[in-house]
Write a structure and sequence with these properties.
The structure is a single chain. The protein is of the alpha+beta class. Helices cover about 30% and strands about 30% of the residues. The protein starts with a strand and ends in an 8-residue tail after the last strand. GO terms for molecular function: ATP binding.
Amino acid sequence: MPGAVEWSFEARWPAEPRHIRDARQFVCDQLRAAGLAHLVDCSALVVSELVTNAVVHARSPFRVRLSRVGDFVLVEVYDDSSDTADRRDHGPADLSGRGLDLVDTLTSDWGVTPQPTGGKTVWARVPMTGSPINF
């Protein structure tokens, strides 16, 4: 990742659906405290999608890290599963699986980094200018 980390905050939760809200609130609180309230809506959606995947698919405890790196905020979600998130096409009748499409639309880049000790980190860069979508 280009640039130096200006600040970083991290929190952990067990793999329970109720903690999706907690992770979202954590990110929103940190952004507001850093004077980046204009990134709250976009970042809240991004972390909600990434954490939901960790809870629903990985079924493992998860960790959220929020960092300011240069001209973007980096949202990272670590889980214990080695299954990777995929970029894929969805048909009009598909009822799920569009969360990463939303992440792709709201961020400048995202990806998956396998961890050497097992598990993975799914990360997304939210530009400091905010989302390309007006909320």
